[in-house]
Amino acid sequence: MTITIVGLGPGDAGLITIQAWHLLSAADTVYLRTGRHPAVDGLPARIQRHTFDEIYQTAERFDEVYQQIAAEVIRIGSEEDILYAVPGNPFVGETTVAAILQGAADADIPVRIIPGISFVEPALAAVGLDALDGLQLFDGIEIAALLYPPINPDVSLLLGQVYSRMVASELKLSLMSIYPAEHKVALIHSAGQVNELVEWSHLYEIDRSGHIDHLTSLYIPPLPLKAGLPALAETVAILRSPGGCPWDQEQTPQSMRAGFLEEAYEVIDALDAEDVDNLQEELGDLLYHIVMQTQMAAEAGDFTLTDVIAGIEAKLKRRHPHVWGDWQVSGSADVLRNWEIIKRMEKGGPAADEFVSKLSGIPSSLPTLMRAQKIQSRAAKTGFDWPDISGVYDKLREELDELREATTAEELRSELGDVLFVITNLAQWLGVEAEIALRETNARFSKRFQLVEKFVIDRGLQWSELSLVEMDALWEEAKATFAKPDVADKVDDESA
Fold first, then answer.
1. 62, 97, 233, 464: least CB-packed within 10 angstroms?
2. Distance separating alpha carbons of residues 458 and 455, to the nearest angstrom
3. Do 276 and 183 fall into the same domain?
4. Closest CA to 237 of 193, 293, 194
5. C-alpha–C-alpha distance, residues 18 and 115, integer Å
6. Does residue 9 sit in the same domain as residue 111?
7. The predicted structure's pLDDT at residue 107
8. Which residue has better confidence, 495 or 378?
9. Is residue 298 situated within a structural domain?
C-alpha cells in the first residue's frame, strides 16, 4: 500500500506539472483536501473525486481539520493505494502533508510526494520579484496570531492563506508592530490565473478589500530605510572591519564603558522629560553600544549577538513560569519572589563551607543612591531593619546631630555619608526610589532657578545687590509660576 501525494498547482489546471497530470489522468479515484480549488474543474471528468470539505464544517479549529484529514488519508492508505491531491505544492503551506508523513512513518506506510508549483511562483511574477534578491515566506494565519512576528523589514515578505477579511484584519495589527501603517503593500488575488488581480494599498487598508478569498496572498516590500537588527549589526561590523572607521577600530570593551553609561543616562533624561522623539534617538544610541560590545566579543571568539538574544529570550521564559508554565501568581509581588527563587535555582546553591553574603550580586557600578537602597532592601529581608518607620526618623535625627558635631574633613564626610544612607532607608520605608526622587528634585530646582535667573535679567536686577529676602521672594514667584503649565512649558522651551 502506498500514499501518493500530488500538488495541483496554484489554480490554473495548465500549471499542474506533467508528472502530476500523468498520475491524475491514470487514476480512477483522487482524494482532494478541498474541492475549492480552480484546478479541480480541469481534472479529467472520468476521475471519481472525494473531498474532505465536510470536515471543515464540523471541526472548530484548522489544526483539528488537518489532523482529521491526515488520519483519514492514513486509514485509507493502510488498506489500499491512495492518490491524495492538495493545492499548490505539497511542501508549501500544507499542514496535512507533514501530519501524513509522520503518521505514515509510524504505520510503516510508504509515501510518495510529487511536487507542484505553489502560489509563490505566480505571486512573485505578479509583483516582479526575484526570490534570490531576498524573500521571507510565512503562513498569514500564523503571523496574524503573533504579537511581534519574526520578520526582517529589510527583506521582501510574502504571506499565504490570507483567505478572509478577518484574517487580513488580524494580520495588519500584527504587522504594524514592525511596519508603518502607511507602508505600501500588495494583495495578490488568484495568482497565476486569468483573473489574477494585484491590489496595492496601505498596510492599514488591507482588510477593506472586497476581493479577499482563499486564493489571496499578501506581498510586503522592504522598508525604504534599513530598519532590521541584522542591518545594524552589519553596519557595526563594517565600521570595525579593515577599511572601516579608525575610531571604531580602536575601541575596546573597556574604552566603550563610559560612553555606554552616558547613553544610558541620556535615555533616562529622555524618559524624565517625556520626550518621545529624543527617547527614540537615545535608545538607538544605546542599542549601538550593545551591538558594538557584542561585535567586539564576537571578534574575540567569546560570544555573538545571537548568543546574547538567545540567552535573554530563554531567561525571560524561564523566569516567567506563570506565563510559559503552570505556576500561579496573584500579583507582582509573587512575580518578584518567584524571580529570585528561579534565579537562585539557576545559579545553584553554594558549597557547604562557602559563605555567600546576602549583599552579593549588587553591582558596584550602580548610582550611589540606587545601590544604597538595594543594600537596605537586601538587609531588610533578613530582618535587619527597624520594626517601624519611627526608628528610621529617630536614627536620622541621631545622625544629623553627629554631623553637626563633626569637625574634621574625614568626620564630615563619614557623618554625611551616614545621613545619606539613613535617608535611603527612609525612602525604602516610604516606597520611594531615592535615585528617582533626587533626579526629580534636581530637575525642579534647575527649572525654578533658571526662571529666577530670567526674572533677574528681565527686571534689570543684579545678583550682587539682592538680599536673601529678595532672592527668596523671586524663588517663591518662580514656584508659583510653575503651577501654570503653559508658562512652565514656555520656560522649558527657552532654556533648552
1. 464
2. 5
3. no
4. 293
5. 11
6. yes
7. 93
8. 378
9. no
The three-point CA angle 231-232-237 to 5° equals 100
**What is the C-alpha to C-alpha distance for residues 199 and 164, in angstroms, rounded to an integer?**
15
At 186, which CATH number?
A: 3.30.950.10
Classify each residue of 93-108 as buried b or exposed e, where b means 16 or more C-beta atoms within 10 Å of its C-beta. bbbbbebbbebbeeee
Q: Distance of CA 61 to CAs 56, 68, 171, 389, Å?
A: 8, 11, 18, 58
Q: Is residue 343 part of a domain?
A: no
The three state secondary structure string of 121-154 is HHHHHHHCCCHHHCCEEEEHHHHHCCCCCCCCCC
Q: What is the pLDDT of residue 365?
A: 76
User: Is residue 299 in some structural domain?
Assistant: no
Residue 207, amino acid: D
Is the separation of the CB atoms in 66 and 95 below 8 Å?
yes
Contact predicate 109/130, CB 8 Å: no
- 249 in Cβ contact with 172 (< 8 Å): no
User: From the CB of residue 14, how many other CB atoms can be counted at a distance below 10 Å?
Assistant: 11
DSSP-derived secondary structure letter, 496: -
The single residue listed with the C-alpha cell 496535512 is 96
Domain that holds residue 424: 368-432
Beta bridge partner(s), residue 185:
201
- Is 336 part of any domain? no
Q: How many residues does the chain have?
A: 496
**Domain CATH for 236:** 1.10.287.1080
pTM above 0.90, yes or no: no
Q: How many domains does the chain have?
A: 5
pLDDT band at 496 (very low <50, low <70, confident <90, very high): very low
Tell me the per-residue pLDDT of 106-147, one tens digit each, with 9 for 90 and over.
999 999 999 999 999 999 999 999 999 999 999 999 999 999
Predicted confidence (pLDDT) per residue in 218-231, tens digit: 999 999 999 999 99
